[in-house]
Structure formats: C-alpha cells, structure tokens
Amino acid sequence: MTKKMPKDFLWGGATAANQYEGGWNEGGRGPSIADILTGGSVNKSRRLTPPAPLEDEFYPNHEATDFYHHWKEDIRLFAEMGFKIYRFSISWSRIFPKGDEELPNEEGLKFYDNVINELLKYNIEPLVTISHYENPLHLSLEYGGWKNRKLIDFYMNFAKVLFTRYKGKVKYWLTFNEINMLTVPFGGIFCAGILDENENNEENRYQAMHHQLVASALAVKMAHAIDPNNKLGCMLAYHNGYPYTCHPEDILFAQQYGQLHNSIAGDVHVRGKYPGFAKRFFEENNITLKIDDNDNKILQEGTVDFVSISYYSSICVSATSDGEKTSSNGSENIKNPYLKASDWGWQIDATGLRYVLNQIYDRYQLPIMIVENGIGAIDEVSSDGKIHDDYRIDYMRKHIEQMKEAVYDGVELIAYTSWGCTDVVSASTGEVRKRYGLIYVNKHDDGSGDLSRMPKDSFYWYKKVIESNGEEL
C-alpha cells in the first residue's frame, strides 16, 4: 500500500452563484438575500440594508466576478487546468425569482443548460449545490426565512425542477451549503434568510435547521426516485476546535464544541436521527423545536450518499482559559500559538485536515468530498505582469499532502475542489481583495476593473498536480 490518490479521484474547483455569478437583475432573476448585503473596501464587515438597494452603497454581489457573462471563458480555463469536477450552485432566484412561484423562469434554466453542457463538453463532472447562501429575498420578507416550515415546499418545487431538467447530466448534488453554520449567528442570515436581527436567535436557527434537514431528506428521496444514479451529499463547514489546554474541562468542552457545531447536523443527514446529546442541549438552552409527526420517518428515509466539507483552518476552544482571539470560518475563538495565520487571521493547519478526515470517516463510514479548501490572500500583479502566489501553492501543497496521508489511513476520499478557483467576492467580508482564486479577475472593491481573467502561478502548479493525480506537488 502506497500514499497514492485513487485512480478515479475527482480534482477540481468550487464557486457559488452568490459570490461569483453576478447578473443579479438579468435574465429574469429576482433579488436574493445576498443582493442587499454591502461590502467592499468601505465596509469591511457586511451589513444588511433595506430590501431596495441604496444608491450610495456598494453591493459586490450584484456583479460579483461576472460568471454570468464569462462562463464559457472560465470553463475553458477550468478544462485547461484539467478539472475532473466543478462545484457550483444554482441561484434559486434565477429559477424562481420570488421563490414561491409554481412555474420556473425558463431563461434562468437555459443559462444553466449552457453551463452544464459546456462542462460535459470538457468531461468535467458537475457538482451542484442546490442552496448556497442565496435564498430569494421574497422568502425572507414574506415568510421570515427558513424558520417558516412553508419553505420546505418551495424548496422541493425548486429541487424537483433541477432533478428533472438535469437528469442524466448531473450526478452529484449537495442539498444545502454549510448547513451547520446555523449553530452560529452568521448562519441566521446566510443559511436561513432570517433578516430580522431580533428573530436571529438560537431557537429560530435550530428550527430553521430542522426544516432544512427535513427538506434535504425529502430531496434525497426524490432525487433517487427520479434517477437512481443520483448521488446526494450533505455539506458541513467543519469546525475543528482543539482543547486549549489538557485540563479535563477543556477536553470535554472541545468534544462538546464538535458535537454541537458538526455532529448535530451531520448525524441527522447520515444517520437519519438527532444524536442523543442534542436532546440535552436543547433542554438546557430552552430550545423547543416544532417537529411534525412524520418528520422522524422522513429523516430516516432520506439519508445522504456521501459527506462533503469545507476546511480552511482550526481554532482552540476552552472552558477554563481566555486566550488571544482569532477569526475563523464564521466564528471567533482562541488562537493556537503553534500555527501561522492568513492575512485575515485564519490559522493555517494542514495536519488538522488529516485529523478531520479521519474523524469524519470513523464516525460515518461514507465517502468524503472536500468541496472547499483554500486561502484568502492579497494578490498583487508583479512588475512582470504576473501573480506569483507561492503562499497559495504552499497552502494547497501541504493540505494535499495531508489528504494523501488520510487516504493512506484508510479514509475513502473521492474529491477535492479548491475554493474560489476563480476570484470571487468573500462571503464574510464582501471584499474582492480577499482573493482565493487560481485565476485572477481584474475586479476591485471600489467597483473598478475590466473583469479580465489571468492565470496565477498556482493555476499552472495545480494543473501539474491534477495531471500527476497528486504525485507532483
């Protein structure tokens, strides 16, 4: 046995419509929650504005980095890198502008027809996220977001249209992006579309998560019925929290942190029921979920075929100490003194990826996809007109090395898609200058730039990685 990736391993990249697509008011598309979030260099922290965009504000998601008009060029570049798979999301409000209509917007479907057909032309497997931080704005204003059970039916109508339209073309689906972000306030807006600050409380977020878990299970069952070849996965933002000290209370706290932020959602998706510790957590935090009589049966019958995760960094957690704080993906916790950090303070922990992959596989024994991994950095065009992003290559190299170690450990890993394979708008800050891409997009936080594309050094490095199936790092 050697440290080699499987022969059929799926290398690729990932983006999301709300951060990449643009064309926010074209092709019959309606507004989404992302379209009323400010951002850019003026507003480092994103904030919600009234439903109608304000003239004196910058809304980076409106144009984003404009996949809507550059899809053909970008897919050609993905093919040049050798992608085997490309993860993207379908904008719900492009298909159902308000979210609750009976019939879809045909012009929106034709756009994704073109995208999917172009991917298949290059033998790139589409991996489609059905809902990725872009609920139609109307569903928030009229129904209050996912805390309202009515959204299950609207989502199922959306999912049925996709499963039917793309039968035989799309095999891999993710039901919700980072569903477990609903354990933190960040997720109330992004995951659930709960826009009223007073309503973004713990009980409403867990109620929204329950509705999404039911919707996911129903979608899994529907997708398998429409096409038995369909493979449905859950998607977790994996929160890797180490105990800050070896104090037993810190060890227990770290375990409970992982249970809360990773395993409640993961267990329901994979095992079809809430884990035992969830009952105690809900009781001790005065959380009372409204669960319909048939929900438990639905969850049991709609378990996923694989698990997917985002992994960027790790943090430390403690019940006994107040260490120096640092940010991570959607949360803030204690800085690990043994790790370096990105320009945005996210601590770089490649070894943690091996730890996480083993942890997930030991718990679930299902195939795993890493569908987001990358580093947000400030990329500068050098005097020779190129972008020498050695820091990104170093980040990816070390994480892929640990992926190979995990495969050698016995983990069934089937795909890796680097996040923001083309520069996108940051979900957390609304900035373009927080660049993740292997492809540079000439777009800036003041709205300037001609949106031209240029491969970075990491583009050519990753091409060799894919060509060698991970041997040439």
TrEMBL record:
Pfam families: Glyco_hydro_1. One of its GO terms (molecular function) is hydrolase activity. InterPro entries: GH (IPR017853), GH_1_N_CS (IPR033132), Glyco_hydro_1 (IPR001360). Coiled coil: none annotated. Keywords: Glycosidase, Hydrolase. PANTHER family: 6-PHOSPHO-BETA-GLUCOSIDASE ASCB-RELATED, GLYCOSYL HYDROLASE. Belongs to the glycosyl hydrolase 1 family. This is Glycoside hydrolase family 1 protein. It comes from Clostridium saudiense.
